[in-house]
Amino acid sequence: MSADNDISLDEKRVYSGDRRETTAYVASGMGVVTVDVVDERVGGFELAHRCSARDVAAGDGLVAVATDEAVLVGPGEFEASGFGPAVAVGLSGDGLLAAGQDGEIARYDEVSGDWNALGTCEGDVRAIDGDLVAASDGVYRLTDDMAHAGLDDVRDVAASGIPRAATGAGLYYLGNGWMDHLDGEFTLVASDGDRGHALGGGELLRLADDGRWQVHPHQPDAEFVDLDYGDTVYAVSADGRFFAEGEDGWRHQLLGMPDVAAVAVPR
To answer: Which domains does the chain have, with CATH numbers?
Structure first.
């Protein structure tokens, strides 16, 4: 699809000179919220852009937001990218990805300024991470096009390190095909290649050094809807709180925003 409001993504990339200070981005029903964090210390927050945000992704100096009207790119002044209403966004090694409300997956071409369609999911898209898409009818893998890669009722995916999928029937990892690691209903899985977390059966799990999942010693007093990594672990909950993990547990800040859906931390 062609971008009516073509912009250069390179123009949106900014880099901070202070590596200890991080701005986390939260997608909410009221808009994009920025939260200042230093390690596990949560600072100020503000509504950076008013919209109905469904998802957010950040990396390589770029922030992308899926909204009910368009895919926006920032940071700073968020601008329309030429992609219409979206339910999910993601960043892979090949660039910015977006999922439309009809299940169409497209990748942004920075050279031409166009969105190139890769294919369409038959089910509802629920998440994009790296080159993986989580949908109600399974996992899709993205290359120059897209292909169904198995499973069903996939709630979330994590592409870094060993690919993993959270489904309504269990937590899976990709080995010789999809291998059942844990049974039960899982709603969240995340990994940065070194750290890993999953949410299932009302418990937060973390990946141990031996590759086994263990119950997190500090259970949050809310249900996480998304989780990402920076200097520590950051998460957002269904009741609108932003969490940062410290040595003695989770610190949190009430954002006061409705329909919090996702968090992204540039790294």
So the answer is: 9-13+20-264 (2.120.10.80)
